[in-house]
Amino acid sequence: MLQGYGSTILDGAWLTLLLALTSMAVAIFLGLLGAAFRLSPVRWLAALGDTYATVIRGIPDLVLILLIFYGGQDMVNRIAPMVGYDDYIDINPFVAGVFTMGFIFGAYLSETFRGAFMAIPKGQSEAGAAYGMSGMQVFFRILVPQMIRFAIPGFTNNWLVLTKATALISVVGLQDMMFKAKSAADATREPFTFYLAVAGLYLVLTSVSLLALRFLEKRYSVGTKAADL
């Protein structure tokens, strides 16, 4: 059916999954940092966090990918001679894809994490401080576990969108499964067959992810419904 291109597309699927997971790790870090900035009592930090979230969420992902990849590569090669490096620097598409997707979805996750932290009653942190906990202990032992429970639904949505958006990275030359499917479609002139196969692989990936994250959400919600009542 796939005329010998099946293993090639599966190799691309593995690269797609690796790209999604690594990008999400970057996005989680930037999302937590952005949420901390936006909740900060320091005005310029809060303004910086709000600007990051607003600007990035207001520009299409494809535009940002092209801007960061090509614009970033041009900037690096303009700066390099200034520090004594004269060779041309070619940025790896995978590395560029990871940081671009992480940068984009970090903005979305900053809103998810901010809302999750705000959903935690202030009395929780005050109680921790009253028991003699330090600020770091209150954050990691009291706030973060509860934040995760509130953030999982929003995180799930962002993960599904990020996973599908990885297909856009193929435009900068990353040989993910979308790139491999396009190459196979061009060679065989059967685009429907290969794009349908890729659609099926994305559906499998997102469906498995959805089941895993729903299980995680149930685990974090154990014992909370009765307490909420």
UniProtKB/TrEMBL annotation:
Gene Ontology CC terms: ATP-binding cassette (ABC) transporter complex
Coiled-coil portions: none
InterPro entries: AA_ABC_transptr_permease_3TM, ABC_transp_permease_HisMQ, MetI-like, MetI-like_sf
Molecular function (Gene Ontology), one example: transmembrane transporter activity
SUPFAM superfamilies linked: MetI-like
One GO BP: amino acid transport
Spans traversing the lipid bilayer: 12-39, 51-71, 91-109, 150-172, 192-216
UniProt domain ABC transmembrane type-1: residue ranges: 13-214
Topology class, membrane: Multi-pass membrane protein
Localization per Swiss-Prot or TrEMBL: Cell inner membrane; Cell membrane
Entry keyword Glycosyltransferase: no
Alphabetic keyword roster: Amino-acid transport, Cell inner membrane, Cell membrane, Membrane, Transmembrane, Transmembrane helix, Transport
Family assignment from sequence similarity: Belongs to the binding-protein-dependent transport system permease family. HisMQ subfamily.
UniProt-recorded name of the protein: ABC transporter
Organism: Pseudomonas sediminis
